[in-house]
Design brief:
This protein has 285 residues and is an alpha/beta fold. It is built from 11 helices and 7 strands.
Amino acid sequence: MAISTVLKNWINCNVMNKLNLKVETLTIDRLEEQRINALYNADHFEKAIFPVPSSILKSNPEPIFQSLAESKLNRSKLQRSELNDVGYTYKNDFYTSPDADVLYAIVSSYKPNIFMEVGSGNSTKITRQAIKDYQLSTQIWSIDPQPRAEIDVLCDKVLRLPVERLEFNSFLELSSGDILFIDSSHKVMTGNDVTFLFLNVLPSLPSGIILHIHDIFLPFEYPKHFIDEKRNWNEQYLVQAILDFSDSFEVLWAGHFLQKTHQGFHNHFENISDGTAQSLWLRKI
């Protein structure tokens, strides 16, 4: 056994354990870096890695494109915060075009009674603006322990706690045509938000519920810089499995897939600039 390993083990046993800490070598990190670099060199992050689910191949984006066209004039006020009632601008790092445009178009065209969002901020602003512009009766329910923006005044119901601690009966108030908007931690972990939502909540939802999941790049891999930043996101792998092995959901909009494959995609988005589509919209069958 190398001297460095002996020293590491001694420090762990005699010092760090008392502090609930642990010394690790860099070997694991180096091996992982080498593995990721090998994937990069094999164009793993540039091409479709997973089979395209049949529900995506069968999806028809035309109704959303039509809604985008119909809402074009009203959406123009999202360009600058002073043009709208909610202080939204496309110039943000969290929720911008084309996802912002699709959210606005879907809310304005589907007119849900309840818009329940797990993860609030810019999406709340966009939704409230659509409600105002189309004089909808939609209620916004915000579930987020620490929203990025001060959005409480835009919401009809505010639940400032982790979604996995929410009373399950709250989800039973959703009915066909309502929207469950998920922008989660993106990590499948023991007892956390993603595990709770996908394994407890989604199976219990009634038919007709519209579901949004953000930061989905299927059938492509997460961007390499997500890996380099050690985000450790894995939610979309669970989503891929659901779409592959279940016929419970109709795909309304597979944003990233469409951006990569649909000719003329950018023509529908006046403010897309270099924005990346990351929203997946489903409807429970």
